[in-house]
Amino acid sequence: MLLRPALVAFALSLPLASALSQRPEAPAPLVSGQIGALVLSLPSYPGADQRWVVPVPFVDLRLARRLYLGDGLGGLSAGVGAYLIELGGFSWTADLALTSDRPEDRTDALAGMGDRGFGLFGGSTIAYRIGPVEASAAAAIGLEDRMGLMGVLALSVAGPLGGRWFGQVGNAAVFGDCANLRWDFGVSTEQALRRRQLIEQGAPGLDPGDGVPYAPECGLRELRATGSLGYALSQRLSIIGTGGAVRLERGAAASPLTRERNSWEAGLGLSWRL
Could you count the other beta carbons within 10 Å of the beta carbon of residue 29? Predict the structure, then answer.
């Protein structure tokens, strides 16, 4: 199972936390990074009022100091990519990212929407770090027209907290064009018709106003605040807790699919540095 883009809090915090827990060593080997597992609590889809508690593996690996396997879309999903430029505190990467599917039977609120498959996005991220502060900007376009274009602006601060403790806090703004907002929050005419029929039949989880077409306003889709706290149990093994708050904006917040505009995510896990 792949997690949806709402996991930016975890994707952003875990690689930073791992780096902070490392000790100075010899030059990097052919393969470096971390692997581990998390138990997560999060909404079942963006805007849902029902939650999942799920165990998931995570990977944050780097091959030959150039290729990486871990996150994509500037931290919004799982992905694979390459460093095009890495000079001082500046980096420029390109990646392919895979976002979660959304089956209709995930919650009652999705009744009539049909099953939506996985999304594949091609994107690029630029980042600049000064000491513990990093600013980044990412853009990605769906490999199908219906997935649209996404953008992310993020700022984070990470550093050791004394002893074996380390932490990170950050925030991000996520944007989308009209196609991208429709991909996650829109309701087509055909979907609205099916939902009206289900409402007339008394389907649970649907309100009278859910059976109408909806084309979300483009632009800002959500704001995020993230944080993580970790403790190095040894030179390689760390325990990490993460959390995040998400607020849907504008067209995303007004969607008939959105049951909760404000949501939270939390996770606890272990990471093993290779």
Answer: 12
> Domain total for the chain?
1
Question: Closest Cα to residue 271, out of 35, 31, 8?
Answer: 35
Q: What is the mean pLDDT of the chain?
A: 88
Domain with residue 21: its CATH number is: 2.40.160.40
Exposure string of 53-79, with b = 16+ CB inside 10 Å and e = fewer, is eeebebebebeeeeebbbbbbbbbbbb
Residue 30 token pair: 């052919």
Phi-psi label, residue 180: left if phi above 0, alpha if psi -120 to 50, beta otherwise? alpha
d(CA 210, CA 112): 10
163: left (phi over 0), alpha (psi -120 to 50) or beta: left
At 5, the pLDDT band (50, 70, 90 cuts) reads very low
Range of the domain at 218: 5-273
Q: How far is CA 127 from CA 108, 138, 234, in A?
A: 40, 9, 30
